Amino acid sequence: MEIFIQLVVNGLLLGGILAIISIGLTLIFGIVRVVNFAHGEFLMIGMYAIYLMHQHLGLHPYVASFFAVIILFAVGALMQRFVIQPLLTADPHIQIFATVGVSTALLNLALLVFGADVFSVRLVDFTSSTIKLGSITIVIAQLITFCVALALMAGLHWFLHNTYLGRAVRATAQHRYAAQLMGVSVERIYIFAFGLGCACLGLASGLLLPQYPVFPTIGSFFVLTAFVIVVLGGLGSLSGAFLGSLIIGLVDSLSGYYIAPDLKEVVYFLIFIGILVFRPTGLLGLGRGSE
Amino acid sequence: MNILNPRAYVTLIALSLLLLIPLGVGSPFVYHIFILLCSFAALATAWNIVGGFAGQLSLGHAVFYGIGSYAAILLLMRFQISPWIGMMVGAVVSTVVSAIVSYPCFRLRGPFFALATIAVLEVVRLVAIHQTGWTGGAAGLAAPLNIGWKWMMFREKWIYLVIAFGFLLLTLLVSWRIKNSRLGYYLVAVREREDAARAVGINPVKVKLIAVMVSAFFTSLVGSFQAMYLTFIDPGSVFSLELSIQVAMFALIGGLGTVFGPLVGTVLVLPIAELARGWLSNVGNGFHGLVYGVVLVAVVLTIPKGLVGRFGESFSKWVDTLPGGKRTDGSVDVVSHDAWAPAAKTAGIEGQVVLSATNLNLHFGGLHATNNVSIALNEGEILGLIGPNGAGKTTVFNQLSGFLQPHSGEIKVRQPDGQWVMPRTPEEFARAGIGRTFQIAQPFADLSVLENIMLGAFMHTSSSAEAGVLARKVAQLTDLSGMLDTLARNLTVGGMKRLEMARALATQPRVLLLDEVLAGLNPVDVSKAVATIRRVRDSGVSVLMIEHIMQAVMLLSDRIVVINSGSVLCEGAPHEVMTDSRVIEAYLGKDYVHA
Amino acid sequence: MKFKKILGALMLAVVGLNSTVNAQDIRLGALYPFSGGLSLLGDESYRGFELAVEKRNAEGGLQGKKIVIVKSDAVDAAQAVGAARKLTSVENVQAIFGSYASSISFAATQVSELAGLPYFELGAVSDPITERGYKYVFRSNPTAKAFADRTVDVINDIIAPGLKVKPQDLRIAIIHEDALYGTTVAKYQTEAGKKAGLNIVETLPYSAKAVDLSSLILRLKGAKVDVVLQTSYQNDTVLFFRQMKEAGFAPKAVIGAGGGYSLQDTINAVGPDNMHGVFNIDFTQYLTNEAGAPGIKAFVEAYKKKYGSDPRSGHSLANFSGANIFFDAIQRAGTFDKDKIRAAVLATDVPVGTTPTGWGAKFDQNGQNTRGMASVMQWLDGKLTTVYPKEAAVAAPVIGKVGK
Questions:
Q1: pLDDT, tens digit (0-9, with 9 covering 90-100), for C348-378
Q2: Is residue A15 part of a domain?
Q3: Is-contact A235 A287, C-beta < 8 A?
Q4: Which residues 77-106 of chain C have a CB within 8 Å of chain B?
Q5: Other C-beta atoms within 10 Å of A100: how many?
Q6: Which architecture, in CATH terms, is C145-282+375-388?
Q7: Is C268 close to A7, i.e. CB distance below 8 A?
Q8: Which domains are assigned to chain B?
Q9: Which residues are CB-contacts of B166 (< 8 A; sequence separation ≥ 6)?
Q10: Best residue of B25, B29, B39, B246 to probe chain C, by most C CBs closer than 10 Å
Q11: In the beta sheet, which residues pair with residue B233?
Q12: In chain B, helix, strand, coil percent, each to 5?
């Protein structure tokens, strides 16, 4: 029984990590309606940035996050402005390819610049320690990540509902044309939204680096899972992304134990296919998932 | 195909270069590149049938490639069955799998379909890795090195090249045949505007399924061949997302939806990647991959329609200037002057009911949109359907053509033989003889006027030639003969409305539902349209029209039905209805009843 | 026709730009994964080969001629085929050396065998590479089966006695990354373990791309596993140790099988204290007794001089040593005729303990070296120290628990 509880705890905490990555993706997905295959590579950029700041400037990763947020906001904005924007009226296939091209280019650029070596950060402070509740162990770093994910979700929710810019973003997401008629500059909103989504990755990279190493292909570890979560939770829904992350975290943890560690992904891809077929709007989706 | 036509011989020369260059150079490495070229071009061409023609972006196509690879090698290793047979087995399995997997996913659009296909691919790959029992798991399988035609393994490279070239020719041929056939037109229609396609009797699911199955079949064949060529397969490299993306990329760069696009795309990009790997990997790890990614983004940003999409037209025109070519512009169509006639209406007797709707009810949540509506359309009559905005006229239309299902009530259509049928889906209604136009015109923008009309004509014939003839006749009837080659997107409003009508007429309907065809037309166009509608009725089609332009309604209608707030307010001869106080009240308000 | 010939010549020129043809040189292909996920160890392996070539050239070359290396990169099997074809045709190499990664080696050797070119494998461990009855594929390093046998030795001869229990009483789990490398080693470990009557309670493959192994560890904990056998690359090794500590799972011993377990970077990421006492079975590593591996110190010096840092793993050493053995054989053959080379290789007789790796060299009919040995190392105080066999050992093994 205690193993079960530990599995659940582990799953929920893993969900926290996945949530931070997925929240950014659902924002972009929900507003700009683009499948950004380069999302994982942006995370990689963030993690390399944090690593460099840690190695050469001695910054603690959590502190370096703030800078990573800014860097990634810029990256996202540039991506939207120069790659996605010219293609907004093209076939959606074209957009997908553009992001795939960016993903390939970034991955190989990292390989070129940093080599294939794996870099990690070993922190000997409170973040790597654990607390024990009875026989259940909780890793502090994961707990912090979880709390930040919650805070991020709450913060974004507040922003989207209580500020003019936030409402403009929501309006654009719901009906681009009508929002334009209301005086919203759709292009600027898209740039902002993409930047914001990537900025979340900046936050994520600072939290992730103490827990995972960075190497050129680390993006691909997370990106497909993030897509599953976003669709599961519902396109554009922040709470959906969070809920989806928790569910997938639990699925990962439980199926890894009760079925087999190398079939974990099969389980959640099957869930993914199931959701797409039977309930494409996702659990808490706003728009039409099959759109 | 006339071989003296420059289009034919230029194509043949270009294709033969694929064989002649490596044969001439004779180096095994060059052979290797060209074998890969032919294989990948074949894969891209097969993919294009789904991704380009049908518009469903599949990023999991490697599933079929992998099934083909494993089928060939497993059957060879375990049962000593020749890979030629193994190849066929794999192709059949792939085709079945493709149908099972795609069917539920078709209603997913754009990125969702792509993601679903990726998920399927990953599941298959992971299961293949896990099932070490018969797939050998991640360690992969090596084909036994038996030389000979039976084992599809040769010392001489040129034989592989010939086989790969054969596959390429095969897929090109299939792709070309599809594009110029009814299936090709149907795929374009479904891809562009599914609703309008259904209204001319196309079953989108069936059409897409065929496309997917054909594509999977050929992808699997090439997969089997490559397995025998590389002699080593493992789940990671055959069920590979990267491979799926590469194949789709080649098709995209060359031009989705064109026949030769995928080949052109492959010829351009693949050698660059291979050469870059040779040259540039000395500069540093990953440099060639970087170049690859950047080139892709650059191409996508500058020529999203792909090379053939962008330059195909001008290239074709240039080719036509070569000896033997004929110019296609300015040619005079020798059109048969037989007037257009609808399908036999042998049993149709004047005055007999041809379309009957009884007690239709439809709710949208709490709104009772259609309230106990009954309409009967008689043979050879023009029935006007009027009512204030929001009364529910188009809703009734949508039920009469299958786009909405009434919650209660019955709709039946009389067939030429006198029997009644009760269609349910838009395609069934279309085939029962109901043609319709849409309130917001839905032309197939990138097709010409002629091709748009042909889409309707295809309902009764599968021959492009026959459809073309019928389409020209209909065009005459609707005054579109002068614009047959114009792209639909370049028409005026009036032209688009006439095109809507023409396309519906080309299905040779017994009943034509016109939804505000006169809206937005200037007076001259209105009177032309009125004349056209009369001609249509006189040729034997019964017409039910929603209209707001009262003079036209009065001029044309034999009877009028008035709908208000979802129910039938009154019906009768035009003059009676127009002076009915309830009607005036509905349109203008109580105050005007006694005006 | 002329046009095609010109085109053909152009293509050749373009493709052959980076190869200078000099009849006085011997061209040898070096086929390794220089990019992609395996590039770290691929590059490390290549360095060993490069050093061997330099040394041989300094000593007068091969058969009196200078050796020129033609580098070729391949990330997976499909590219390996293309690379091999390019080497055998355009580059006109006399032989190919490589490749570290089993899948690359597998595919490339199919090409070289069909083309009748000798292929010298210096580091890939998957047994099937030399089990296909090929005549011109030769391998100097020990295979996965040797690793597996050695694992059983460690359990029987070191761990069980050290814990004062019978080997059959230990509860053993095999965990491995699910690609070719991990699957092959795990398969042979299972076979060897069963043959020795060991109690294997769990066999758990996992994806090398896994970001979380906590449920796997919980399963090991629940099964009360005493000894964990892991075959993994770098990041999954790091992940495993970190999460093991977090979960409070403390097996009595952990035995790795090369890959991530041999890299200094791994222990830096995990922390020397956390990996203290962890066993590793791999090719000879650098903290090895010179007596059992003559020339190893000289090699490390040469490496440091050329590359400016310590070797990153023992792969360079294995490639260096294997290349030397093959160069000697080629020298004896006096020509590059494939059958004479085969004869010379099969006639090789180098005693164990006379090479920098400590291996000997005697090749069976399949071209596999039967005198390669897997060494047993242990991470002690942050250094990968050889503890077995005795001749190569630098320290005595430490048993008890993992971590300090």
A1: 999 988 888 888 899 999 999 998 888 899 9
A2: no
A3: yes
A4: 77-79, 81-82, 85-86, 88-90, 102-103, 106
A5: 26
A6: 3-Layer(aba) Sandwich (3.40)
A7: no
A8: 9-240+311-320 (no CATH), 353-592 (3.40.50.300)
A9: none
A10: B29
A11: B141
A12: 60, 10, 30
Q: How far apart are CA B499 and CA B516, in angstroms?
A: 14
Distance from CA of B475 to the nearest CA of A (A): 31
pTM for the predicted model, two decimal places:
0.83
pLDDT in tens, chain B (595 residues): 556 677 777 788 888 888 888 888 877 778 888 898 999 999 999 999 998 888 888 889 999 999 999 999 999 888 888 889 999 999 999 999 999 988 888 877 777 888 888 889 989 998 888 887 777 777 678 787 778 888 888 877 788 899 999 999 999 999 999 988 889 889 988 888 888 888 888 888 899 999 999 999 999 999 999 998 888 788 888 898 878 888 888 888 888 888 889 999 888 888 877 777 666 655 555 676 777 788 788 888 888 777 887 787 788 788 778 777 665 444 444 444 455 555 444 445 566 888 888 888 998 888 888 888 888 988 888 999 888 888 888 888 888 888 888 898 899 998 888 888 898 888 888 888 898 888 888 888 888 899 899 888 888 888 888 888 888 888 888 888 888 888 888 888 888 888 888 888 888 888 999 988 888 888 888 888 888 888 888 888 899 999 888 888 888 889 999 888 888 888 888 888 888 888 877 777 666 666 5
C268–chain A Cβ distance below 8 A for any pair: yes
Give the C-alpha separation, B472 to B369, whole Å: 40
Under 8 Å CB-to-CB from C219, ≥6 apart: which residues? A256, A257, A261, C202, C204
Q: Closest partner residue to B301 among A86, A106, A109, by Cβ?
A: A86
CATH classification for the domain delimited by C2-142+295-346, as one of 3.30.70.60, 3.40.630.30, 3.40.50.2300, 3.40.50.1580: 3.40.50.2300
Beta bridge partners of A137: A132
Residue ranges of the domains in chain C?
2-142+295-346, 145-282+375-388
**For A130, which of C209, C246, C271 is closest by C-beta distance?**
C246
Determine phi and psi for C13, rounding to 5 degrees: -60, -45
* Residue in chain C lying closest to B22 (CA): C8
- Give the burial class of B472: count Cβ atoms within 10 A of its Cβ; 0-12 exposed, 13-18 middle, 19 or more buried: buried
Report d(CA B346, CA C35) in Å as an integer.
75
Q: Do C179 and B138 touch (CB under 8 A)?
A: yes
Q: How far is A53 from chain B (nearest CA, A)?
A: 24
The answer to whether C213 and C241 are in contact (CB under 8 A) is no
Which chains form contacts with chain A, at 3 or more CB pairs under 8 Å?
Answer: B, C
- Which residue type occupies A189? I
Q: Which other chains touch chain B, taking contact as 3+ CB pairs less than 8 Å apart? A: A, C
* CA separation for the pair C346, C103 (Å, rounded): 25
β-pairing verdict for B367-378 and B353-364? antiparallel
Omega of the bond leading into C99 within 30 degrees of 0 (cis): yes
Angle in degrees, CA B112, B115, B118, rounded to 5: 155
- Among C8, C35, C39, beta carbon nearest to B21: C8
Structural domain of residue A36, as residue ranges?
A: 23-217
Looking at the structure of chain A, the number of domains it has is 1
Phi, then psi, of B360 in degrees rounded to 5? -75, 135
- Whether residue B236 and residue C182 make contact (CB cut-off 8 A), yes or no, is no
Look at residues A200, A195, A267 and name the one whose alpha carbon lies nearest to residue A232: A267
Compute CA distances B96 → B73, B92, B496, B520, whole Å: 20, 6, 41, 49
Token readout for C352 is 């164990």
Instruction: Kindly list the distances between the CA atom of residue B580 and the CA atoms of B258, B393, C5, C342, in Å, as whole numbers in the listed order.
Output: 58, 19, 89, 108
Rounded CA gap, C96 and C81, in Å?
A: 13
